[in-house]
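Handoff note, outgoing to incoming analyst
You'll be picking up this chain. Sequence as last confirmed:
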Amino acid sequence: MIRKSFLLSVLFASSAMFAQDELIKKVINNASISSQFVFNEVIDLEDTSIKNQGSAGTCWSYSGNSFLESEMIRMGKQPVDLAEIYTARFVYLEKARNYILFNGNMGLGDGGETHDVLNMFRKYGAMPQEAYTLEDYGKGSVKSDDFQKRFKEILDDYLKDENPKKGASWVQNINKYIDENFGKLPETFTYKGKKYTPQTFSKEIVGINPDDYVEFSSYKDNPYYQKMVLPVPDNWSYDMVYNVPMTELTDIIDHALAKGYTVAWSTDVSEPYFSWKNGVAHVPDVDLYSISDEQKKQIFTGPLEEKKIDEDIRLDGLYTLTTTDDHAMQIVGLAKDQNGKEYYKVKNSWGDKNDYKGYLYVTKTFVQLKSTGILLHKDGLPKSTAKKLKA
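Most recent structure output, in case you need it:
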């Protein structure tokens, strides 16, 4: 228990400032192995175009906004290309507030959770990409590493300043800094010939209710069907999620997809059995903590027999920090390989330069083992799960 408590304190205290930038470079640059997978679509829900987050760790905003775009389609609306960095800039402002109020005792950086998209949507509304033209973050002159370094320095300088007359100067300084890097936001904008504010646009055009969405994770050492604070560094807002058994995560996803609901998915993609280039993630039947170079060469040559996993293996991964909250994507469908095995079709935000033009196929075993969270509309839940949930 001492070791577990220590690990949890590390989780909450650590900063993921540069982690995803390095992760993206590592995973994207992994060489593609000649593979022999054949996938046949079983469920293929409509989604919007593939985007590219660049080197910034804003996957949660890209996947979360992509999820909202799919929700618009499901609701019979014309989808809008939503501005991901509009959402991110307000998360940075909220993080700055918490950082000051916690006297610097929390992580900063690009990281976030898909629920942040809903939280910012509720509070600040949304903008279409065509009206928010400052999407340079992580892809052009605004480098995420440089931005985050100075962002933290401004806040730390304020905390170190002992001048009793300093006031809440950090508010003006941070707002000015964000405006300099992301552009000053207009109070109104025009979309299809009509003038909107972000709030009226979110209500009249996007039209989703953030309160209609629920989030889940799985930790064997916490009571099931009750809420818990998701213990990952990127949950900077300490939002609570429902805790369910490992296999129920995939039961929920299966039911949602069958009913036409996509799922926002947070997971670990740093393992050698996740291949962006090959567009496949599955769990080989080997020692997962000691995969040899020779074994790595065989992982993606074609379908394989997967490792039998259970709640203890999953929890061990979480508590040894081999399962971390690396990346967020969107589950948009279900497919079967040439042997009839099921995989989830997943939309990523790293561009379209992989074997499946921006998508990948992930087994249920991988999702059960490596997921840190799923988010979906409450109407996509199985009735059996919905009945068990306790507020």
